[in-house]
Amino acid sequence: MIDFRPILFIIGILLATLAIGMIVPALVDLYYGHPDWRVFSAASAVSLFIGGALVMMNRTEKLRMTSRQAFILTTASWLVLTAVSALPFAFSNMNMSYTDAFFEAMSGISTTGSTVMVGLDTAPPGILLWRALLQWLGGIGIIVMAIAVMPMLRVGGMQLFRMENSDKSDKAFPRATQIAMGIFTLYVVFTIIWTFLLWWAGMSFFDAVAHAMTTIATGGFSTKDASIGYYDNPLIDVIITLGMTTGALPFLLYLQTLRGRPLSLFRDSQVRWFVTIAASIILAVAIWHSEVNNVGFWTALRFSSFNIISVMTGTGYATTDYGLWGAFAVAVFFFVMFVGGCAGSTTCGVKIFRLQVLYEIAKIQLNHMLRPHGVFIAYYNGKPLTEDVTESVLSFFFLFVFCFVVLAAGLGAMGLDFVTAISSAGTAIANVGPGLGPIVGPSGNFATLPDGAKWMMSAGMLIGRLEVFTVLILLSPDFWRD
Amino acid sequence: MIDFRPILFIIGILLATLAIGMIVPALVDLYYGHPDWRVFSAASAVSLFIGGALVMMNRTEKLRMTSRQAFILTTASWLVLTAVSALPFAFSNMNMSYTDAFFEAMSGISTTGSTVMVGLDTAPPGILLWRALLQWLGGIGIIVMAIAVMPMLRVGGMQLFRMENSDKSDKAFPRATQIAMGIFTLYVVFTIIWTFLLWWAGMSFFDAVAHAMTTIATGGFSTKDASIGYYDNPLIDVIITLGMTTGALPFLLYLQTLRGRPLSLFRDSQVRWFVTIAASIILAVAIWHSEVNNVGFWTALRFSSFNIISVMTGTGYATTDYGLWGAFAVAVFFFVMFVGGCAGSTTCGVKIFRLQVLYEIAKIQLNHMLRPHGVFIAYYNGKPLTEDVTESVLSFFFLFVFCFVVLAAGLGAMGLDFVTAISSAGTAIANVGPGLGPIVGPSGNFATLPDGAKWMMSAGMLIGRLEVFTVLILLSPDFWRD
Ligand SMILES: [K+]
Ligand SMILES: [K+]
């Protein structure tokens, strides 16, 4: 029998934390004199009550967990937090069904950024802040998980980033807690820096806070229906582009950089790949946009760099409807969606390190076909890759594609047209935000989708955010067998 | 230095064979009194001359090849045969540019079946027969390669089907030549049977021959612009559905069945998977079509079974424009394109055995995550899978997807809209035939695509047909290094 007490205990603590988080929008609404402060206070009380009850009832001596318990905890905590975070949306006067509220909350916590809300420009401040806060919390949550939980659970090749390995060669970080605190501090500092940068560049202070949070979290919720395009300000574009990139690099490397290894960031192969891939695609799309749509090259470069970085890091802001840039650009935006950023960042998708591993393995395969008796070893960042890691990464890729296909077909069955269905499936599973086409494209909105499609997409966001395996393993009958 | 003589020698022999093949449409045109008989005779002479010259100049004592030579031979022979097969298209009075002629020939030899010809119903008989013959030759060519060449070259997990392995346990087939002869005979017999079935069901004898050849080869070239929909005959639909299925199963198993092991076919896990997957999808689409489009269930099942089998086996016939069946059906048709049939058949795509291996590996990965110290072994058809095979299959899947993405983006750059670009990329690389959307869908045609797109698609068909690795390996600088 699985012991659920430690699982419920930790979910309780997380709910209590969420209750504290809900006080922030309550205070903001109170400050702006908006009646929603009551909704947030009530939701906070509910969250605190459930959380407290779970903590009380499940106190246990030892908090060590088996990996089975850790798997259940990961998915269950994400689901419970989403269900409770949805309450303010459902009970504010935004006229949202619980389906819509759950979709919006999942899109927030998973840092996806697809929205079903229309009229953001006039939405109450508490709700806007709550959306930003959910992404901000989801973002730090995922970094901590990527560093502390995923490697232990050996999810999709994340065992590459196991702490024990780096500990041996590296006495600079003795304790996981210390690392977690360091990263949290850094995350807060980044958010403060980008708040002031955006404020300085011309945003209102409120908008600056909200956008700083969703930028660093590569979340993509905006306070404007037109997203960052609302400001039409090149300076803001550049600041946010840098912010999204910051959110897409491995946070652990920032710590190393700060602790006296200034070159860690530049020496890391994942970072180099990210920069190379992003720069090549930005340039290609800028040239296309400039040639085909008769736009000056620098204007094309400005819009190409912002929107490609936004989609590639899975942030999902838009400064224009790039769906109108023509065939090549649309195809590139579709595929770039799946790339993602680096492991140990706030981004989702396939991720750069997996592309590196896939590339290495393909190269080895070709060599192996040529010299069947040769011995070839795949390397990552100078270290040989074990079979365990390579098969994990390859299976991840297959399952990622498989889930995408199933989700796209499911959304088709809900009546979404082909482009809407496949781009919505992609945007959900890669946690990007906007899709393609007139309905869910960068100028569109997920509000008009049928309820079934919203639930399917919510499931897709969860599966994508938790690196596929973590959720799918719970569906295996073997998992529940003793 | 690579010794090109044996390569050129074999290409010479193949060209001489092609020259003999060209005499068939020449005789048919002569019989029908069409002046194209001169074009075919001239092309035959050219082919015979080049082929003869190559044979003469490159006669060598030993015909043993290194795998490097075998890789060059595979891609080079396919390219040279296509270039020469294109001549009759280019010089007949069909007004085709050489680009169009090459596209049509590649689409034929690779058994893809995408066409740039309009007005098939009134096209000269020689040209129609030549298209069918190209697919028929391509079909048998690929079976022989899948049995004799690919396993030796260890392409994408095909080493699973290596002869030496089965030889040890199985003394029934002492020699590869004998097997090749057996399969060729079977291929001819199947073609004759289907010719008579189609003739009996109401086709003209000429149409019956042409369609029997492109059915068994899962090629999909028709003699009618409306494809099989022209006949609107349920009996023909059923006969062709059975024929496409016959072409999609492993031909080696037919031999075993005939040589006294009647259950081989039903005991093979690849065949079971194929039937299960096909049946489930046919049923799902039939239910959708019947419910959403207000069609009787049996009519829906008739059209669903024909068209799903056609797309899944990569044949590419159509009896109706399934692009109009609505979102779910379109998404399913898009993804089913990539499935393909069994290894050792005339079909292309990812293929069933790779899906089985991917499924096994994903299952093992989940078990392994649950019990990190457990030992789990993946099986295929009751035999354990080696790491060599699993990594081959996984890399194949990744490279297949990668080539699809690059091709789709390239077609976008040629100005094709999103749906046309991604479905054309898919249909080329999986050698299916029709794409999706108004331009290249089942009722459409590839004639209006720009020349650049046609060359890109030709490359895609070649890459897909030769199992990706075989072509990509030639692009590696290591390949050409001594
Ligand atoms: K996002
Ligand atoms: K075909």
From TrEMBL, chains A, B:
One of its GO terms (molecular function) is metal ion binding. One of its GO terms (cellular component) is plasma membrane. The chain crosses the membrane at residues 7-27, 39-58, 70-91, 133-155, 176-201, 235-255, 271-289, 322-344, 393-414, 455-475. It is a multi-pass membrane protein. Pfam families: TrkH. The keyword Cell wall biogenesis/degradation does not apply. It comes from the Bacteria. Keywords: Cell inner membrane, Cell membrane, Ion transport, Membrane, Metal-binding, Potassium, Potassium transport, Transmembrane, Transmembrane helix, Transport. K(+) binds at residues 111-112, 219, 315, 431-432. The keyword Signal does not apply. It is found in: Cell inner membrane; Cell membrane. Its main location: membrane. Low-affinity potassium transport system. Interacts with Trk system potassium uptake protein TrkA. Belongs to the TrkH potassium transport family. This is Trk system potassium uptake protein. The lineage of its organism: Bacteria, Pseudomonadati, Pseudomonadota, Alphaproteobacteria, Rhodospirillales.
